[in-house]
Amino acid sequence: MLVDVLRIVHILASCVWVGGTIALVFVGVPAIRATEGEARAIAMRTLGRRWRPLGWSAMGVAILSGLWLTDRHGGFAGAALDTRFDRLLIAKSVLVALLCIGAVLHDYVIGPRLQRELRAAAEQAPSTRRRLVLVGWFNFTLTLLVPILGALVLSTLD
């Protein structure tokens, strides 16, 4: 029963993260790109500030429930790489860690730097924007790969 509840919580939290990210990438950001100047900056800032608490909370719940599920399935008990479950779980964990690092860079380092550069009309803003877009697409790719690996991990439990 507890494992079922944990799986449901894990999947719902993952759905919020993945679905929200897809909506941002294909709906929110393109709509904001149609605006210019200060309106664009305000819209991007507002979108980021509204998404972060929901997205980061969902990611946190997914990580914590995933760790709890791993423990419930003996993922911390055996030697690493012994089974397909272990190998897939380690791969998924590495991708989640990379996703967290990328999200921190995007949300709290490169994004704010770009905002400051745009306000100051700095010459380096285009290169910072390219880095932000590159990190964003890297994160998006990981956001899609993590649940795929999650499904593969679950397939080993049957």
Straight-line N-to-C gap: 17 Å
Main sheet: strands, sense, barrel: none
Gyration radius, in Å = 18 Å
Uncertain regions: pLDDT < 50 for 5+ in a row?
Answer: none
**Count of discrete alpha- or pi-helical segments spanning 4 or more residues:** 4
Structural class: mainly alpha
Rounded average pLDDT: 90
N to C succession of SSEs: HHHH
- Shape, principal axes of CA atoms: elongated
In percent, how helical is the residue content? over 70%
β content, as a range? under 5%
Counting DSSP E segments of at least 2 residues, the number of strands comes to 0
Descriptive overview:
With 158 residues, the chain is an all-alpha fold. The protein is built from 4 helices and no strands. α1 runs antiparallel to α2. The two termini are 17 Å apart.
Condensed summary:
The protein is mainly alpha-helical. It has helices at 2-33, 37-72, 84-119, 125-155.
